[in-house]
Amino acid sequence: MKRVIFFTLIAILLTGLLVSGCGEETAPSTTTTPAATTPAGEQPEYGGTFIWVHNGGITQIGAIADNLGIAAQRNTYPMFEGLLMTDEQDNIQPWLVQTWDVSDDGKTIVFHLEENVKFQDGTDFDAAAVQYNLEAVLEANISGSAFLNNVSSYEIVDKYTLQLNLTEVDSTFLLRIAQGYLGLMASPTAMQKETTPETIAEVHSVGTGPFLFDSWERDSYVRYVRWDGYRKPGLPYLDAIEIRNTADLTVSIMSLRAGEIHAVENVDPVDAIQLGEEGFTIYQPNLYFLHSIVPSGNNPESPFAIKEVRLALEYAIDKRTIAQGVGMGYYEALNQLATAKDPWYNPDLTFREYDPDRARELLELAGFKNGFHTTLISDVMARRDTLTAIQTYLDDVGITTDLEILDFGAAFGLPQQGWEGIYFPGFPNVGTLLGIQGRWGEQTTYISIYQPEGYWEKWDALKAELDTAERTEILIDILETIYDEVIGIPYQGDAPLVAMDPKLHGFAHHAFHVTSFWAPGEVWLEK
Hints:
Elements: H1 2-19, E1 49-54, H2 73-76, E2 81-82, E3 84-86, E4 92-94, E5 97-102, E6 108-113, H3 127-139, E7 151-158, E8 161-166, H4 173-179, E9 184-185, H5 188-191, H6 200-204, E10 211-217, E11 221-226, E12 240-245, H7 249-257, E13 263-265, H8 269-277, E14 281-283, E15 289-295, H9 307-316, H10 319-327, E16 332-333, H11 356-365, E17 372-379, H12 384-397, E18 399-406, H13 408-417, E19 422-423, E20 429-430, H14 433-440, H15 455-464, H16 468-484, E21 489-494, E22 498-500, E23 504-505, E24 524-525
Parallel strand pairs: 1-12, 1-13, 17-18, 17-19
Antiparallel strand pairs: 2-9, 3-4, 5-6, 6-8, 7-8, 10-11, 11-12, 13-22, 14-22, 15-19, 15-20, 15-21, 16-21, 23-24
Helix pairs in contact: 1-10, 1-12, 9-11, 15-16
């Protein structure tokens, strides 16, 4: 199917080059079906086995402290629950933590836990269990856990009250607990049992969630069965959940059409359109992923150290055509690191429309009348059709490129090591405050970006600001700086498409601005 998209995109691209962006552009469709919405008049039904297929791998099952990869959390949500959650505006919401207090100086956080909750092995969920889990993920050096080094001490005030004392203020601390996988709770009793690679899944897979671990096979499937001891009355609805990993998307779609499974994730837009016409539900979450190209503006010897050159890159690329050609109406062209749904979106930032003549003028103004040659660096995760389109656009204004494709490991190391040329990350950043900060607000990542005076001080101010509204205003200002100085060039926002049996309800992946989150207890199937 990707070949179909490629030729479609190139056809649109060539048309765009001929007309130089003239004419009105149709905005990408925003019509999606919220999977978690129960149809009017229908009540959830009990029973059945929900079968979901994705191509994200099932390399290990166990607790987070077993050093699971971040993508693995989708496979463990039936049994593990988190301390906190966020809503679609990044506001923190309760989960296993019912309420919390933050001191005026931001250095003391007190968790008030939901009482009388049990892990699936009968162990109490209490303050000691929370302390154990947070210390375990830090000791295991789980990716992203470094922020927990800021905890100077824990104090168990009473059975259901835990106080965290911080060395320095960090306004993103609770967001990291709420939006990451580090806040998922496992039974300390289970975690302290000795295991082998063969038994770790069975022994350590004990949480507070609505389903019990049943069985699994590496990179094949994991199965869960209903737990009748779940704390929320009436949940779960299902008897069992089976999550499968299938690399071949065509095979997964065939299984969906045959009625053998209920949901397929990461469906290509072309397939989504066809499946929608066949009566399947197409779900696109609110949480968007933001794609950008990133010039090496920090090197004073680079052409990209000159603002006019970075600006020329943006005018050279027809973002709307790319989003439409690849996304078929499901993706959004971007002019900033935000979508219109985000609280930090700035409607005053003008969309820089495709204008190759303007790009050539800017290059001439910067001293590159005849253009120049550079490297376009990407990785195996990138869409080749989009890469080809961007190469073609740049070549049209005189910026010729050699394409360098990195393997998976090199791609993750490049931002920290630096690059020369144009970096095209195959994996986008998540469209949350933390997702944006992780790419653009850490001095050890994206080290080759242009860094105007005061840039890092703004990020420091964001981290120190405890008021949510004020913190959002700081982020708006930072994103305006990125836009004004063309530090990076956002071009597309998208979200994974899920094709589902219309009898499936309550399944909403990436819900509530939390990567990989879904609520297994609320999923149900019509008979």
